[in-house]
Design a protein that fits this description.
alpha/beta, Quinone Oxidoreductase, Chain A, domain 1, Rossmann fold, 6-stranded parallel β-sheet, globular, binds NADPH dihydro-nicotinamide-adenine-dinucleotide phosphate
């Protein structure tokens, strides 16, 4: 049983030395327990937060403990009446080959799911985040302009496509020409602006001639700086993530922009609301699964997954995800299915 543990806490961007690969015998399930074989491991931006011991909505991973993470596993052995070997389950085994569970918190995916790994993406936590943040907090209306960054990731791509289903003009922000082309040609966004461009703020303003009614905040930083003056009266800003700052070790240089932000919120009566998907919307998962399941089945939403081979790739892949090196939902294939 291989497992990645947190060796030390990062200062700034995580580095390989913050992780350590350990090997131990495959654990044996006791009475009432099951043995899970990890097939897919999800990598997500929040993992950077768990590596740090700064106060947050969830406790940090302890030094020497297995890195946390959502997983899709097969049941290898079962001493539990409700689980049969061979079944697929969604769980939270973390960065390891095997885990023992008493079944609590596991979601059954059946004997033969069509796309088991999608439970970590469009049909799982990131899809749910996109759906609730946009529809419940963003309240998009037909004809409005919606802007979303990290536009080709699992959250952003889903936000933009739901925005199109609701009749919005959707402008994405992404890193690089290839991602922007994909957002327009495959995801159906009206425009997508490369945030690496020197004149990014001007390009964004040109793409939003009627201002911005909903800004779904995934990244913060210079993207938010460019968005702020474009926000319309009564705009809604679901604050989902601030990934551009997850590796930051200090506040950005430059003038204090808090008065500008507060003044804009006041004068334009803008609503900004943060949310943590599981904690705020866990009770609405059925609603999401039904509507998203129907959209996906009907082919109304596109989904791009970046499958990376081998548990050994996890640290480098997480480091890359935080820098935008991924293209689509990052999933580690830990074992063959
Ligand atoms: P992604 O797969 O989209 O990965 C993050 C992306 O952020 C990168 O690929 C990169 O895309 C972009 N990015 C990184 N650095 C910068 C930067 N400096 N400026 C602009 N963009 C940058 O991640 P997810 O779809 O999984 O998550 C998106 C956001 O949603 C994250 O902030 C995450 O923390 C948040 N989240 C929040 C939840 C909640 O409950 N509140 C739940 C789940 C996710 P590009 O190359 O296109 O710039």
């Amino acid at each position: 049983n291989r497992r990645w543990v947190l060796a030390s806490r990062p200062h700034g961007a995580p580095v390989a030395e913050n992780f350590r690969l350990e090997e131990s015998p495959v654990p044996a399930p006791g009475e009432g327990q099951i043995l899970l074989r990890t097939v897919y491991l999800s990598l997500d931006p929040y993992m950077r937060g768990r590596m740090s011991d700064a106060p947050s909505y969830s406790p940090p991973v302890e030094i020497g403990a297995v890195m946390v993470g959502g997983t899709v596993s097969r049941i290898e052995q079962s001493n539990h009446p409700d689980f049969t070997p061979g079944e697929w389950v969604l769980g939270y085994s973390g960065w390891q080959d095997y885990a023992v569970s008493d079944g609590s918190g596991l979601v059954k995916l059946g004997e033969n799911p069509e796309h088991p790994s999608w439970a970590l993406g469009i049909m799982g936590m990131p899809g749910f985040t996109a759906y609730m943040g946009l529809l419940d907090i963003g309240q998009p209306k037909a004809g409005e302009t919606l802007v979303v960054a990290a536009a080709t990731g699992p959250v952003g791509a889903t936000v933009g496509q739901i925005g199109k289903l609701k009749g919005c003009r959707v402008v994405g922000v992404a890193g690089g020409a290839e991602k922007c082309r994909y957002a327009i040609e495959t995801l159906g966004f009206d425009q997508c602006i490369d945030h690496h461009a020197d004149d990014f703020a001007e390009q964004l303003a040109q793409a939003c001639p009627a201002g911005i009614d909903v800004y779904y905040e995934n990244v913060g930083g210079k993207v938010f700086d460019a968005v702020l003056p474009l926000l319309n009266t009564s705009a809604r800003v679901p604050v989902c993530g601030l990934v551009s700052g997850y590796n930051a070790t200090s506040l950005p240089d430059g003038p204090d922009r808090l008065p500008l932000l507060m003044g804009t919120l006041l004068k334009k009566r803008i609503s900004m609301q943060g949310f943590i998907i599981g904690q705020d919307y866990g009770h609405r998962i059925d609603e999401f699964q039904q509507e998203m399941g129907a959209w996906v089945k009907a082919g109304k939403l596109q989904y791009r997954e970046q499958l990376i081979d081998g548990l050994e790739s996890a640290p480098a892949s997480l480091i890359g995800l935080l820098e935008g090196k991924n293209f689509g939902k990052v999933v580690i294939q830990v074992a063959k299915n």
